Amino acid sequence: MYPKIKRRPTRKVWVGNVSVGGDSPIRVQSMTNTSTTDLSATLSQIQKLVEAGCEIVRVAIPDEKAVNALKDVVKESPIPVIADLHFATSLGEKAVKAGCAGIRINPGTFKNKANLERLLKVCKDYNCCVRIGINAGSLEPEILKKYKTPSYRAMVESALRWVEYVVEKIDYYNLKVSLKSSNWWETVKAYLAFSKKSDFPLHVGVTEAGGLIPGTIKNTMAISYLLLRGIGDTLRVSLTGDPTEEVYVAYEILRNLGLRALHPEIIACPTCGRCEIDLSSLYQKVETWAKKVKADIKLAVMGCVVNGPGEAKMADVGIAGGKGVGVIFREGKIVKKVPEKTLLDEFFKEVEAFLQAHPER
Ligand code: SF4
């Protein structure tokens, strides 16, 4: 049913109480897009992300105000918080001391290496996980000078240099690495090459991927390509817009690779001229409901008798539409035929009954 995937052996590291790499599940993370200083908006977004299945959340720390707010974010967040830092190492030290479980640093944006070394030592003292986040758009000048363009080889050299630096100079191993470009194939090549040379866990994803449709496609291409080859220990689907969508897309990718399932899977037909019920609106309602449910079940929402009964039978609970009516299947058997206006309510009743009968799902 799903491809057989052998995960690349990696070290296990810890972001607070969440393990990444080794035999840990592939972790789903996201990033808030609120101002970190707006505590109520940030915590409310973190709560929505958690409900969607996010396991680690990153917040931006652009200035002193943000780092001062971080302590409260960390205290109230139900999942580990990572501070995202660029340019100023002093903010990084304060973020680590404020209790963040991890920091993401982009070495290309830190000019003063002595300060960066001090920050990394503070991370070691606090066992704060460090992500070396290489980004094609902000590579160090000396690497760019050598490679002329921010190619995948340039990203890999930068990442390897920094891993070696942290391991050898700081003697610190609570590390993960990302090598992101806005070009999905360049991103893939960077991860493939890096993974041959290092066993630190990899945070995979495509950066600056765009909105829901183009961003989902770019991320899915790169992340799936890598996961199919066993590469990737945690992922972020970067999308412009509501970050909870990033989490739903991440779980869709993981489910379709047979790696993790969190929310119900919905099989639905595209509808066509044969359809005689309002299937699109039915589907939307089922999808909205399914996003709030954490259960590994399969639902089918089908328009007519052509493929409807077949798919509905194979689902845990399914609908096959007819003329102003719907037939509801549960575990392969017809349980009801109901008029369209009560179809959704009756469908949900059957789903609830199925979930009660199968609490393990
Ligand atoms: Fe059309 Fe029926 Fe197929 Fe849906 S199941 S696309 S309504 S033929």
Automatic annotation (TrEMBL):
Obligatory cofactor(s): [4Fe-4S] cluster
Keywords assigned by UniProt, alphabetized: 4Fe-4S, Iron, Iron-sulfur, Isoprene biosynthesis, Metal-binding, Oxidoreductase
Catalytic activity: (2E)-4-hydroxy-3-methylbut-2-enyl diphosphate + oxidized [flavodoxin] + H2O + 2 H(+) = 2-C-methyl-D-erythritol 2,4-cyclic diphosphate + reduced [flavodoxin]
Enzyme Commission numbers on file: 1.17.7.3
Residue ranges of every copy of the IspG TIM-barrel domain listed in the record: 10-251
Residues annotated to bind [4Fe-4S] cluster: C269, C272, C304, E311
UniProt entry tagged with the keyword DNA repair: no
Residues of the IspG C-terminal domain: 265-352
One MF annotation (Gene Ontology) recorded for this entry: iron ion binding
GO biological process, one term: terpenoid biosynthetic process
Gene3D superfamilies to which the protein is assigned, alphabetical: Dihydropteroate synthase-like (3.20.20.20), Sulfite Reductase Hemoprotein, domain 1 (3.30.413.10)
Domain of life: Bacteria
InterPro entries associated with the record: Dihydropteroate_synth-like_sf, IspG_bac, IspG_bac-typ, IspG_C, IspG_TIM, NO2/SO3_Rdtase_4Fe4S_sf
Keyword RNA-binding: no
Pathway the protein acts in: Isoprenoid biosynthesis; isopentenyl diphosphate biosynthesis via DXP pathway; isopentenyl diphosphate from 1-deoxy-D-xylulose 5-phosphate: step 5/6
Cofactor note: Binds 1 [4Fe-4S] cluster.
Known role: Converts 2C-methyl-D-erythritol 2,4-cyclodiphosphate (ME-2,4cPP) into 1-hydroxy-2-methyl-2-(E)-butenyl 4-diphosphate.
UniProt record similarity statement: Belongs to the IspG family.
Protein name, as recorded: 4-hydroxy-3-methylbut-2-en-1-yl diphosphate synthase (flavodoxin)
Originating organism: Thermodesulfobacterium commune DSM 2178
Encoding gene (name): ispG
